[in-house]
Amino acid sequence: MFAALAFAFFCWLPIVACYSTLAFLNFLSGWQVALLWGTIVLPCTLLWFYGQHKDYQARNPLQGIPELEKYRFRSR
Fold this sequence. Notes:
This protein is mostly helical. It has helices at about 1-25, 30-60, 65-70.
């Protein structure tokens, strides 16, 4: 479901980024455009990695509880 929603984002991102950069260059210098993109992309990337880390931690919330170890399936 969500992969279908992300399809448009991944198809349009290069086009939007290119034309946005060209539009920004009409009003800002090159280093200001790079700083602007950096302030947009860096926090979003860090938040994505943080979310992925939290998702990985939440995959098995019962892992490591000693009382549950005796109920764990053991292969013979």
